[in-house]
Amino acid sequence: MDNDQILFVGTYTQQMLHNESTNSNGIYSLGFNSSEGKLSPLSSIGNAENPSFLTLSKSKRFLFAVSELSEFDDEYGGGVSSFEINANTGEFSFINSVSSKGIDPCHIIVDNTDKYVLIANYGSGSVIVLPFNDEGSLQEQTCFIQHTGSSVNPERQQGPHAHSVSL
Question: CATH number of the domain that 115 lies in?
Fold first, then answer.
């Protein structure tokens, strides 16, 4: 079967409140044959914990993943990882990871200039901007915004929850 597209799937690697225990390797690449509507496994990588949301750079050279965690590398907050993609094979290699500076990052996008990733941290209600260089390596934050307040039902929602980022 000839694949004309590659897709990436992020899966939980740890037990969460909403899933049972898992043996997942984290991120998987699959070939997609659009004329037959069929998928075939290509590769997987286990360098990201709980990669719950993925996005590609505009150039499609890099894959970015949030790690939905409350502690990452013994620090407060989740993580963000970057990977370089081999467009011919669907294999990808780990570049680096950094803290998202907030709990349970749940969404990530790449800006239109293909130079920044923007991340929503659900658990702590914050948003962060991280630049990445020409090699796909994530750099120190350029902006961090912590939202405050509660919902109309403060017993259920004591603080803000950033769900997504859109441009």
Answer: 2.130.10.10
For 75, the 3-state DSSP assignment is strand
> Does 40 reside within a domain?
yes
* Separation CA 33–CA 41 (nearest Å): 12
**Chain segment 80-120, per-residue pLDDT in tens:** 999 999 989 999 999 999 999 998 999 999 999 999 999 99
In a domain, 152, yes or no: no
Burial class (CB in 10 A: 0-12, 13-18, 19+), 98: buried
CB 126, CB 102: distance < 8 Å: yes
Is 106 contained in some domain?
Answer: yes
State residue 76's pLDDT score. 82
Structural domain range at position 125: 5-146
- The count of structural domains within the chain is 1
| pTM of the predicted structure, to 2 decimals | 0.89
